[in-house]
Specification:
Elements: H1 9-17, H2 28-31, E1 36-40, H3 44-55, E2 59-63, H4 67-76, E3 93-95, H5 98-102, E4 107-110, H6 117-124, E5 133-136, H7 149-156, E6 162-167, H8 172-176, E7 181-186, H9 197-211, E8 216-221, H10 224-246, H11 251-271, H12 282-293, H13 298-307, H14 311-317, H15 323-338, H16 343-352, H17 358-368, H18 385-401
Parallel strand pairs: 1-2, 1-4, 2-3, 4-5, 5-6, 7-8
Antiparallel strand pairs: 6-7
Family: Belongs to the NAD-dependent glycerol-3-phosphate dehydrogenase family.
Domain Glycerol-3-phosphate dehydrogenase NAD-dependent N-terminal: 37-187
EC number: 1.1.1.94
Length: 409
């Protein structure tokens, strides 16, 4: 029986809504010794993920570079530097030794700044277990060439390693406190034609079931390109949105910035071979809404500082030089290679690099950006209408009929 394509609506719902047996390696959390998971990076996001995974029944080791941070994690069950006031679940381990963290780990999550990803992945690669799954939980592009996190991991890891992305709208403090969160797990190997499709499906469905116990709901996709583009570019939109807030331009202007940012995501995703409809999930519009709409976001706060005229140096000194600021610079390599101009990225760069004024940069973004709405690429491949037309037609009829006429669940 063939594995369904994750982007096939009906087949996806059939597969995901079923209750599959826990796959080998993930079911031990229920029936025996807990599976070992390593989280590399003890910032706010890495610590929050480690707490959620520990709470879900796994044995988690959190790796940090700083001995003082490891000491606090061990003795206080907290991360006072990045998540003050939050008590972490019992049993969570912490270490500065990479080999200790990775020993026997079946899942390795790299929750690091994008600038540190390659160096850490190169150090970790020789220490990985042969059956380890490696997920990038960082949002950005590599500085010099604009490489996506999975491209960096592919350069560093064994050719047979199962690689993926964990992304979506997720303030770290809420995840650490166990509040409901919906994320996207993107594994290219979920594509039915992939040599590791069966293994990828078993892992993804098992992790999805396990994390449900920690109030984290997972969406599954094979489209790692869109998941990474959405996660990186939403930070730029948040910076521009914060600048607009500081300038008092109003909610209408911020909505326009979000719209332009979503179009930037769409164009870059398509240029890199991803599917723009993936951006309609948590890793795209969900993350964009959360980050651009809240002053709780570090990128939005950076935008507020820039909009008030504080400048890059003051923002860096305050600790507010974020992944969004780095992404605005690093995505430029991709724009040049692909012949694209990302409008929100250009606006942010004008203020960050060229010492431009926020009012002028925002005016150019809002008034000079293209107003034409281009047709979307076809969702259903023209070569296979018979395979999917009936199911999609049924979905369309249900949508037209309205929620009241949906079949009973």
């Amino acid at each position: 029986m063939r594995q369904p394509a994750i982007h096939d609506f009906g087949a996806t719902m059939d597969a995901v809504c079923a209750t599959p047996p826990m796959p080998q390696g993930m079911n031990e959390a229920r029936s025996g010794p807990s599976p070992h998971i390593a989280v590399l990076g003890a910032g706010a996001w890495g610590t929050a993920l480690a707490a959620a995974l520990q709470r879900s029944g796994s044995q988690v080791t959190l790796w940090a570079r700083r001995p003082d941070l490891v000491h606090a994690l061990r003795t206080q069950s907290s991360n006072p530097r990045h998540l003050p006031g939050i008590t972490l679940p019992p049993g969570l381990r912490a270490t500065t030794e990479l080999a200790e963290a990775l020993a026997g780990a079946r899942l390795v999550v790299l929750a690091l700044p994008s600038a540190a990803l390659r160096e850490t992945a190169q150090r970790a690669a020789p220490l990985l277990a042969p059956d380890a799954v490696v997920l990038a939980a960082c949002k950005g592009f590599e500085r010099q060439c604009g490489a996506l996190p999975t491209e960096v991991l592919r350069d560093c890891c064994d050719d047979h390693a199962l690689l993926g992305v964990l992304s979506g709208p997720s303030f770290a403090d809420e995840v650490a406190r166990g509040l409901p969160t919906r994320l996207t797990l993107a594994l290219p190997a979920l594509l039915p034609s992939h040599a590791q499709a069966q293994r990828a499906h078993a892992f993804a469905l098992g992790l999805r079931q396990q994390l449900a116990g920690a109030a984290i709901m997972l969406e599954l996709t094979d489209d790692a390109v869109a998941a990474q583009v959405g996660g990186a570019l939403k930070n730029l939109v948040a910076i521009a949105s914060g600048m607009a807030m500081a300038q008092g331009l109003g909610e209408n202007a911020r909505a326009a910035i979000v719209t332009l940012g979503l179009d930037d995501m769409r164009r870059l995703t398509l240029a890199l071979g991803g599917r723009s409809q993936t951006l309609l999930s948590s890793c795209g519009v969900g993350d964009l809404f959360l980050t651009a709409a809240s002053a709780h976001s570090r990128n939005t706060r950076l935008g507020l500082r820039l909009g008030r005229g504080d400048g890059l140096d003051a923002s860096a000194a305050s600790g507010e030089l974020t992944e969004g600021a780095i992404a605005a610079l690093s995505v430029q390599a991709l724009e040049r290679r692909l012949g694209l101009r990302l409008h929100v990225a250009a606006c942010v760069r004008e203020v960050l690099l060229q010492h431009g004024s926020a009012p002028q940069a925002l005016a150019r973004l809002l008034h000079d950006s293209p107003a034409q709405v281009l047709p979307e690429e076809p969702v259903v491949p023209a070569a296979a209408p018979a395979q999917r037309g009936g199911r999609l037609a049924k979905v369309a009829r249900l949508a037209t009929a309205g929620w009241s006429q949906r079949p009973a669940q």
